[in-house]
Amino acid sequence: MIRVEATTNTIAINRARSDRRRWIALFVVCLGQLMIILDTTIVNVALPSIQSDLDFSQSALTWVIDGYLITFGSLLLLSGRLGDLFGRKRIFLLGVASFTAASVLCGLAPTGPALVVARFLQGAAASLASAVIIAIIAVEFREPAERAKAMSLYTFVIAGGASLGLLLGGALTEAISWHWIFFINVPIGIVTVVLGRRLIAENEGLAEGGRIDWLGSMLITAASIVGIYALVKIPEWGWTGERTLAFLAAAAVLLAAFVALESRIANPIMPLRVLGLRSLITANLVRGFLVTGAYSTFFLGSLYFEHVRGMTPIEIGLAFLAMSVALATMSAGLAARLVARFGPKPTLVGGIVGPVAGLLLFSQIQQSTPYFPTIFAAFALLGFGFGAANPPLMMIAMDDVPARDAGLASGTIQVSIQLSAAIGLAALGTIATDRTDALSAQGQSAIDALSGGYHLAFLIAAGVAAIGIAIAILGLRNPRPELQAVEEDPEPAGLEPAAEAQAA
Predict the structure, then answer these.
(1) Which string of DSSP letters, residue by residue, matches 395-423?
(2) What is the DSSP letter of 273?
(3) What is the pLDDT of residue 210?
């Protein structure tokens, strides 16, 4: 009897240790994601200082942003699959370590070309780390309630980190120098690698005898690079420009060659069965419309506050805090309780209503509109909506993904975010510019014309996000009651072999 009780106590202790390890591991991967997401906004604030210090031309300066986006977005699918093949923990830690080293190179860059090269490397490293994070979370947190909480924290890190980047970028650039927007990644990266080595669980790699689909890897990477390069250059080349159409056509040809190859070989880098996962593909489509519409707030909103309302970088960062606080509120457990009470799909649909309403409010803001209550309410609606919509969207996307493809599925989620953001910024930026030019031609003042351009962009962004609601209602289904599609091991994590033997 005593032996049975001791065995039971041992199992309980092991389970408790495993549970603590999983939640600390979640903090570690989110810390890595925070470092990556900071770089998507923190650099924007420092661009004027970088241009002045390194003597960038205006056209060359765009490569500080574009170089990062191109390698980041282009390598996500490959990085996600490498996690499935060689171990997601290994790929995540490699990505974080490489990102940290590239950040040092960025901070030390003595010339403009050196900084651009370092940003290309930084984007490639970011893809390695970011592509496998959702898979790590989905495998570690199998129960619906736990997964909802974990995805809530991940969502908060993404959106909260973006607004934090605006604030930190302004503060570091003004107080010290632009170099420190990169050096700040170093301590974060070191802590993430040290803790990640000890706490993150590793999956068994699927690579067999080193047989890797290198040709398919090169084709999908080339297609992504060409396509994303065309997207980021649309504001300069135009939607129907010869170079835009030529690059998009080349990307389509490379993608067709990739699909043809993957359908014929035994060990494809991207098994086409993934394209048949209804929940994953439809959820990515919903996410695409949500990102295209609502994520424009970070970029167009920042430009609006700077050029129309004359706010400083620090003031812009503080303005976004209302959204971060709302996100934190949802991430503290409210989103998980909503999912438990109403289910993932109703929570998702209700959540997207928040960004739609927030963007509609933004489209009505005037230069004299006080921050409180209108602008504050718009940011709060965006925060509450993002916080409510993203966790169930992640849950639904990973619902029917088999364990062997979890990393690749995680990569497709990240790709949907990057591509949608690029398309949204190109389209909405063009719309805002064209509207501004038209209003200026009609005799309106520069400020009024700018304001009118941004208002139209916000209005269209609200409509695009609303399309996501329609697709979610018509195309998505609630996940199964028990989310076990990405289970790696049917045995409880943390149950030591010795404990198993005693229990038997």
Answers:
(1) HHHTTT--GGGHHHHHHHHHHHHHHHHHH
(2) G
(3) 53
